[in-house]
Amino acid sequence: MYIKQSELFTGTSMDFVKKFMDISATSSHTKGEILFRENDPAKFFFILLNGCVKLSVGRPELVVYRAELNGEAFGWSSLIGGDVYSASAECLQATKLLKTDRDKLACILEEDAANGIIFYKQLAATLGKRLLQAYKVIEPNKGDSK
User: Fold this and answer.
1) C-alpha separations of 117 from 51, 58, 71, 122, 124 in Å
2) Lower Cβ count inside 10 Å, N or C end of the chain?
3) CATH superfamily of 3-131
């Protein structure tokens, strides 16, 4: 996957994308591998290159999201000032990720404020879509009785 395809980078410059790639590392993981647990220190931000990652809260069966589309981001707690992850992440199959250190990312976001703003707007839009999906899980029949 070409990283520019990720929604997070829509509208950012190629130079910004290159800087992001320069501070990121590709990592491969096996089915069942735990990437992080809820309340672990939030040190990394992840972008799915291929595979599937389950995000759960509380108990492993309480799935709040499945990252399964190339370019999907997770581990965002690390980018919003969270000291710990708000969920646990487990690979549901062999998975390849782009892993980015939050402190290094914070530096390039601060150095390039214009692209940083675009990146954070895209992140907010992504999280907003996930929140709307969560509402549908909580109340699946809401609005169907019209």
Assistant:
1) 29, 32, 19, 9, 10
2) C
3) Jelly Rolls (2.60.120.10)
Q: How far apart are CA 74 and CA 89, in angstroms?
A: 9
CA separation, residue 90 to residues 29, 119, 145 (Å): 10, 25, 37
Q: Please state, as a whole number, how many other Cβ atoms lie within 10 Å of the Cβ of residue 1.
A: 14
User: What sign for the dihedral angle of Cα 128, 76, 5, 35?
Assistant: negative
- Per the listing, tokens 């709307």 go with 132
Tokens of 25: 């590392």
Residue ranges of the domains in the chain?
A: 3-131
Beta carbons within 10 angstroms of residue 61's beta carbon: 7
Q: Which helix (H) or strand (E) holds 106?
A: helix 102-111
Per-residue model confidence as pLDDT tens for the chain (146 residues): 445 557 889 999 999 999 999 999 999 999 999 999 999 999 999 999 999 999 998 887 777 788 998 999 999 888 887 799 989 999 999 999 999 999 999 999 999 999 999 999 999 998 888 777 766 665 655 555 44
Question: CB under 8 Å to 33, separation ≥6 — which residues?
Answer: 90, 91, 95
